[in-house]
Amino acid sequence: MSSIPSVPLNDGQRIPQLGLGMWQVADADVPRVLGTAFELGYRHIDGAAAYGNEEGLGRAIHASGLPRSELFVTTKLRNPDQGRERALKALDASLAKLGLDYVDLYLIHWPCPRHDRFVESWEALMKAREAGKVRSIGVSNFRAQDIERVVAATGVVPVVNQIELHPMLQQVELSAYNKTHGIVTEAWSPLAHGGALLADQALQTIAAKHGKTTAQITLRWHIQAGRVIFPKSATPARIDENAAIFDFALDADDIAGIDALDNGTRLGPDPADYEDMG
Question: Which residues are the active-site residues?
Answer without folding.
Answer: 51
